[in-house]
Design a protein that fits this description.
The protein is mainly alpha-helical and 450 residues long. The protein contains 18 helices and four strands.
Length: 450
């Protein structure tokens, strides 16, 4: 029998053992508490940050969400902003990734318990080649962030000077690649809604980060479509389809809205803004338009994109693109009376379908539960609350302005949703279920569905 908590007899005494998902959740929780305490200290903020505000910011940074209750650029000092960037990096690439990197650098072998935890952190099904994957993650991340900071420097240095401009470039590069959505400006990146450099470099970083390190490494090694793995092919096709659909739909829905696209000066700027807002719900969290001014139809579309998110072993959240694709393939297979799913000359079995069904079910329950409890005693609009909870679960960070209106209880609820969204619905499901070999087999029954 496999349980979240197990007991093991050591020297005649019973010692409590935590399963890998539980250890992973505990590691993230400890990092969040330490980060919140440091951000609360006087040298990290300008004096207007409470302990709850600091803890909320820490949760948002470690879970790479980007929701904030205070303005990051004005409420935190440069030291505090640097701490937030470190928390983003730790949360985005995975805490166990850095732990394994340090152990490897010190020449300490990575044991089976550490590999099991790392497997959960990277959402892998096997413990083989995990150390190789860690090296790929670190190399890809550092290269992308250095190049991104260099490109952003051409925008920020001329406007803010060398020191401030370089810091803005580094901070926003780290935030973008890790799909965090933290910005040092109250209106995010709205000042550069028509900047080609911002509209190309920032989305490119969070698209690469959201594809997943396995996909990026696979592309780098194979470089030919027919040699790519099934996972890489599904991720690339699914990501391209979602981006194109979001881009066209956002432009069609918001083209004449004076609060968003309709208020921009020309067609080119509208297309840039549509592109950015179509990509950013994939857990990036930056915005170049006022999210609260979007039509309700566009808001619903954005929520759908936030739920889907990015890819496995990536810095993105959500139920993942491959989960959505497997659900669609399972639906098609059901109507075609097929027992197996087929994609790109490969088949998927029942285990994959059961996993994505469990993931989707738990995700829906988390979102609906979060909305339900926030609605109790709240006078906010339903759509604003639903958008906020969906953004928190998908670790996106987009907001319709409701985050700042949250009371202490509301902030705690959003923190819980962010934490669950990052650690993973399957980890939550691990605590809700056990697996054992059935001792009795029951005769088959029949129920009527649909």
């Amino acid at each position: 029998m496999r349980r979240a908590l197990r007991t093991k007899t050591v020297g005649g005494r019973s010692a409590l053992q935590l399963a890998p998902p539980a250890v992973l959740a505990l590691i993230y929780l400890i990092c969040i508490i330490l980060g919140g305490f440091i951000l609360w200290l006087p040298f990290s903020n300008t004096g207007e940050v409470t302990l709850l505000d600091a803890l909320f910011t820490s949760v948002s940074a470690v879970t790479v969400t980007g929701l904030v209750v205070v303005d990051t650029g004005s409420a935190f000092t440069v030291i505090g902003q640097g701490i937030i960037a470190v928390l983003i990096q730790l949360g985005g690439l995975g805490l166990m990734t850095f732990a394994v990197l340090v152990l490897s650098a010190l020449g300490i072998p990575v044991g089976l318990p550490q590999r099991m935890i790392l497997r959960e952190d990277l959402n892998q099904t096997t413990i083989s080649n995990l150390t190789v994957l860690v090296r790929v993650i670190i190399v890809v991340a550092l290269c992308c962030e250095v190049v991104g900071a260099a490109v952003l420097a051409f925008v920020f240095v001329p406007e803010f000077g060398w020191s401030a401009g370089l810091w803005h470039s580094v901070f926003h590069s780290v935030s973008a690649f890790n799909n965090a959505g933290f910005a040092l400006f109250p209106d995010s990146l709205s000042q550069w809604v028509d900047s080609p450099l911002i509209n190309i470099s920032v989305p490119l970083m969070f698209i690469l980060g959201g594809l997943g390190f396995v996909v990026v490494g696979d592309i780098y090694q194979k470089r030919r479509w027919h040699q790519l793995t099934l996972h890489s092919k599904l991720m690339l096709v699914g990501t391209a389809a979602l981006i194109l659909w979001g881009w066209v739909t956002f432009a069609a829905l918001e083209w004449n809205n004076p609060g968003t696209l309709g208020g921009l000066k020309d067609t080119g700027t509208r297309l840039w803004a549509s592109w950015f807002q179509a990509v950013t719900p994939r857990t990036a969290g930056f915005n170049t338009l006022d999210t609260g001014a979007m039509h309700e139809s566009t808001t619903l579309m954005t929520m759908a994109l936030m739920v889907v998110g990015g890819g496995s072993t990536s810095t993105a959240g959500g139920i993942k693109v491959t989960t959505m694709i497997v659900l669609l393939l399972a639906t098609v297979a059901f109507f075609r009376r097929q027992k197996n799913l087929h994609a790109f000359g490969r088949s998927l079995g029942l285990d994959e379908v059961m996993k994505v069904m469990a993931l989707t079910t738990v995700s829906i329950l988390i979102v609906l539960t979060g909305i339900f409890f926030l609605l109790i005693g709240r006078d906010g609009a339903f759509l604003d609350i639903a958008f906020e909870v969906t953004s928190a679960f998908g670790t996106v960070g987009l907001s319709r302005g409701f985050t700042g209106e949250l009371g202490p209880i509301g902030q705690v609820l959003i923190m819980v949703v962010m934490f669950l969204g990052r650690v993973g619905p399957l980890t939550v499901g691990f605590f809700l279920a056990t697996r054992s070999v059935p001792r009795v087999r029951y005769p088959a029954g029949q129920i009527y569905l649909g």
